[in-house]
Amino acid sequence: MLNYDEFKRAVEAEELDTVIVAFTDLTGRQLGKRYDAEYVLDHYHDFESHACDYLLTIGVDMNPLDGFKAANWQRGYGDFHLVPRMGSLRHAAWLDRTAYLVCDVADRDTHQLLTHAPRTVLSKQVEQAQKDGFGALCASELEYFIYNDTYETAFKKGYKNLQTAGWYSEDYHILQGTRTEDLQKAVRYYLKKSGIPVESSKGEFGRGQHELNVAYSDILTMADNHVLYKQCFKAWPSLAPEVAEAQGKSVTFMAKPHHDEAGSSCHIHLNLTSAETGKNAFAGDKDLQGIKCSDTFRHFLGGWIKYTPEIMPFLAPTINSYKRYQTASWAPTSLAWSPDNRTAGFRIVGSGKSLRIECRIPGADVNPYLAFAGSLAAGLEGVRKGIEPPPMMSGDAYRAPSTTKVPVTLNEAAHALEESKFARQAFGDDVVDHYAHYYKKEVEAFRKSVTDWEKQRYFEQI
């Protein structure tokens, strides 16, 4: 991380010549501009930038979608302001002589933060937690598949017949993991040098599937770290030959890239801290079916479970997301909770000062700002209303008939979000309308498409 003096020294020493000024779009991608580092230094104390407001109304193909109130053809697609968070300025160590600056997004006229910008959505929930007397700590466990094909090669092959960087299940497997260690070690190194503390990496259940975890932190910092982690893994490292693209590899964070492999998750670990003491607000002497905890823990768990169906698009935002939810797939299919049980949607981990809730429902395709915001809002509502969790589940949650199941399509989830009184109270009508419309447009795009599955199944036989 770089304060003003450190940034000034690095620029003057020609250790930095470029600053990426970036914000996050609805999908969780990084968009923005590259600035000359000397320009940013000269304007450090009053630096601001701008971008076209259509960028928060686009699909993954970068085309503007119609029907949004925030930006549209009738309004002429003007600009919004990028508000730099100078405390986020850091070396982007995987790029040559480059720094990275995270921005919020503000209205061009009022200069108020746009309520539908993903980082604002989370920031508002952090502010609400503070009003309720809490801080929030979080970590996201991201999984991904590595391929021995570049992104360009994968595109030219139509994403067919890609070679996974592993040929058998490698969950915790040291030998198979060693075969991609050049890439994993480089990413661990570059993240650490970019101010993102790394814990570990490991093989996962699928062939070529891995996981790399960064350290637990406050929830907004974790979201920032999450998007930069993905950027490091996927960036084209023209001057950093150790990273994926230069190695002739690619990485996907799709939730379910293969129908016959485990999907990739983004397990969210979360707990509240007391604003007064700084201690874990989940710890306590109350008993919840054998778990020593506080009332805050119990009600947060109750709220998170109760409202998950209404925030599901924030946890599973794509058509592909819902392909993960299959029996015996390591992805949960129900809203059950249980201590240290990987078949349940909510797994209770740790005890005392380390007590936390792991939500295993999100896939690796989440926008972390939205996934964290939805999770925090749901839990806080549970605390405010004293919502009790359902009875603890024992055994195999996949086969427990009495548990509530997760939504099975994005269409179902988008309508649940749109109709949710809780979501409208927590995020505001403008935010809910914006995102519900976005997810329904994705459903519409899929509904119009003709898939390879259809052609293979029907071309001759019908």
TrEMBL record:
Q: Name one GO molecular function term.
A: glutamine synthetase activity
Residue span, GS catalytic domain: 118-462
Which InterPro entries does the protein's record reference? Gln_synt_N_sf (IPR036651), Gln_synth/guanido_kin_cat_dom (IPR014746), Gln_synth_cat_dom (IPR008146)
Keywords assigned by UniProt? ATP-binding, Ligase, Nucleotide-binding
Choose any GO biological process term that the UniProt entry carries and state it. glutamine biosynthetic process
For the keyword Protease, the answer is no
**Which Pfam family, just one, is annotated for this protein?**
Gln-synt_C
Annotated family = Belongs to the glutamine synthetase family.
Protein name according to UniProt: Glutamate-ammonia ligase
